[in-house]
Amino acid sequence: MRTVKHALLIARKDLAVELRTKESLNAAGAFAIVILVLFSFAFDPGPEEVREIGGGLLWLVFLFAGALVFNRSFARELPNDCLDTLLASPLSAGSLLVGKAFANFVMLLAIDLVSLVVFGIFFNVNWTRHVWELGVVFALGTWGISILGAVFGALTVDLRLRELMLPVIIYPLLIPLLIAAIELTKLLLSNGPPSPSDFLWAKMLIVFDVVFTALALALADTILVN
Amino acid sequence: MREKIAIGLSVVAAALLAYNLYQMFMVLPDEALQGAIYRILFFHAPAAMVGMVGYFVALAFSVLYLTGKNFLYDSLAASVIEVSLVFSIINLVTGSLWGRIIWGIWWTWDARLTSALVCVLIFFGYLMMRRAVDEPTQRARLSSALCIFGCVDVVIVYKSIDWFRTQHPGPVLDFRTGGGKMDPAMANIFWLNFLAILLMAIALVLVRTRQESTAREIDSLRRLAHAAA
Hints:
heterodimer, A: 10 helices, B: mainly alpha
């Protein structure tokens, strides 16, 4: 319970800093919209093609925008040795990691929502029929991306070439989650009836989130404490 | 002592390989449906198996490093992953050659091919990360954590094979099928070649571990000299 309370405290701090500076949100949001615009120029898809590839496009946008958010997540604690101060505080490493992941999750979910609205307008896709189901898929997928983003954001925080290393490491790790999220999003955008394999993808999203959250908590000290 | 073991293993592996190559090309007949190209299986599947086993051996070494903080385990984990990566790439290349002949394509986004490629990408990232960290303790700690995350991910990726429709051939070895899919003479050479490749991999790991340990010793001496100057 204390870990959750401390994690929420860290998340609140990160979100407050972000709302004041908007350094990650502005960059990631603008980046997401630019990719959507470029995509329409690059492929000029028709209505059928949009339903077919829309899921993949949206998750790639979330992923690329996410990398910008995760890079800043721990890096913003480096000036004035804020990270050392946080680690020296009574907060556990687990609560720090989950708190950072939760702040990333909220920011990325906001970017997901903006991207979805822009995607609907630009490509004439009505996504409102399955809004709750899409919300659940986005939340599960975004949490998986956020927890791995927080873990590897922490691992790469003081590496040279940090901005390059983070995507190289986390994108391959996120492939199972992306496959599941893309399949489910594609189904919800096309309004087709669900098949048994779609429930397997939903289970895969949940398993991915649970396994990597548990692993992140178990290895939090190793990841953060030098 | 370690050099002698490595040399001994290499000699046994080379002798076994020579015997296997003779059997493969001079004794065993062509396969009824695939013709001569089926022989690639004798290298393709053992390379995949050695690569996959290697990743989980590296996982064990990474956990041992995190519990004991002994740098030898870090060197072993890095060496095993490097060697496993080479065998995984051999697996992908030989599979691609086989696919070109049998399927008419170099590559398809089939689940098993994709999962093999994802493994290569994950552990390529591991090696890149090791090069990006200069401080040995930090490098060992971060690499161990990445190896654990990578191996857990490999399991999830591998599981996706059951869920995706796959055009990759099904299992043919007795321990997967219960027997009857592969001629016993071919199965014997298959397992002998697996042994040869495994011994070669162990010899390579011993050599690489020695190099890793030496590199760390040189690095610490350099740091000492720098501090003393």
